[in-house]
Design brief:
Number of helices: 3
Radius of gyration: 17 Å
Distance between the termini: 40 Å
Structural class: mainly alpha
Strand content: under 5%
Helix content: 40-55%
Number of strands: 0
Shape: elongated
Number of domains: 1
Largest sheet: none
C-alpha cells in the first residue's frame, strides 16, 4: 500500500493499483481517514523529529572530504 497521499488533482489509473484506493478516498473527502488507517501522521511526526535533530547537530556535522 502506498503511504503517500495523492495530489489534490490526482486521477485514477486504468489498472488496479493500491493508489486507486487513496485517490478514491481523496475524491470522497475521506483522505483524513485514509491517513489515519495508514498511520501517515506518525510518519510525518518522525520526519519532523529527524529534521529538528539534524538542526541541533548541524554545526557539528560536516561533509567528508
Amino acid at each position: 500500500m502506498p503511504n503517500l497521499p495523492p495530489r489534490s488533482n490526482a486521477w485514477y489509473w486504468e489498472k488496479w493499483y493500491p493508489r486507486k484506493e487513496a485517490v478514491k478516498s481523496l475524491k470522497e473527502d475521506k483522505l483524513a481517514e485514509w491517513k489515519r488507517i495508514r498511520v501517515y501522521h506518525k510518519r510525518s511526526l518522525t520526519e519532523t523529529a529527524i529534521f529538528r535533530y539534524k538542526q541541533l547537530l548541524s554545526s557539528k556535522l560536516t561533509l567528508r572530504n
